[in-house]
């Protein structure tokens, strides 16, 4: 079996798992367990499979252009394999057309699609002929529809983003959603320091650099086979955490001896950051309603050797009723709220296809309930930080404005919205720091 075939087969298997409802990162992990790929193979497979997920609408547009059957009438398994071939032809300049076609057709021949191998070959070769003749699919001249097609985003979402930030900024954001995300680490300052760990990475031939304006952030420029095999993983020297997310915990300025609540804690990147900033000498309660996610948090605490965090499986909106002893108990509270995650679309390519306006409306109701329910747990003169990984104003600044209008004793100290940008790494993020007077 050729390596090209195995790479395309693995990429196709990832698409099949995502189409069945599995998150893209989990699908990638599950499939790669069945192969022995090196880091370059994994980089290609990740680019190919995640690229197909991101550009689903654009690739379907090409299927409709070059095939007798529209994408809606294609058998799903064939449709995803055609995406594998089309993405190589349309978006991966370094792969020769012949290699892209032959390796994709080979997947069909060696799987249950063997009866359709000729169809795959014909559609991909027809695509090449159309490219050579500059015969491209017809796209609306309407700017919104054009952006939706070219950057492969649902039209309703394109309309929303343009409403939020204007057309030109929306174009930049849409392009940012389709770039390869950075791999960022945060060192565990309880166990190492930045320059020392950078030297360790360099000695292991890992290309990395510090992240500007972050005391503990490192950007990986290499693409390792497994992050868990990087130096320092077993010893708890670092955690994976996007650079935008690393801005949040320092806003609370956690100090020795303080009582701190992380109300939506799992899987724990911000919880462990709070503990490290307080030198593992604060009293931190990490709450999450998902037992599965709490186990991940507990595993991270153990690996990082953090002792100051206690976990609690609970719904943060009900803490006032279930744990009345916590009323006016905390000096500082972090509400890293469940959100639409629009700021992380580059990292989570499948999210754009499962999100809708109704889901956002339900999330806004939950976010409002969380904030209202949490306030009684905060001491007077305490600090509250609300954060999300979205760029939707109704989940961010507009929600906080509404919250402050209803709660006059809460004042806004500062807020920050980070927008995804094509020319800069990092997710979209929002945070507001507030005081309880």
What does this molecule look like?
β6 (283-288), α14 (291-304) and β7 form a beta-alpha-beta unit. Helix content is 46%, strand content 15%. The strands form 2 sheets. Strands 7-6-5-8-9-11-10 form a 7-stranded mixed β-sheet, with helices on both faces. Strands 2-3-1-4 form a 4-stranded antiparallel β-sheet, covered by helices on one side. It has helices spanning 3-19, 24-32, 39-54, 56-66, 76-91, 97-109, 117-132, 143-150, 155-165, 167-177, 194-203, 249-252, 269-277, 291-304, 319-322, 351-354, 357-374, 397-406, and strands at 183-187, 208-210, 217-220, 238-240, 259-262, 283-288, 309-313, 330-336, 378-388, 410-418, 429-436. It has 3 domains: 3-138, NusB-like (N-utilizing Substance Protein B Homolog, Chain A); 183-240, Alpha-Beta Plaits; 245-436, Vaccinia Virus protein VP39 (Rossmann fold), CATH 3.40.50. By secondary structure, the protein is an alpha/beta fold.
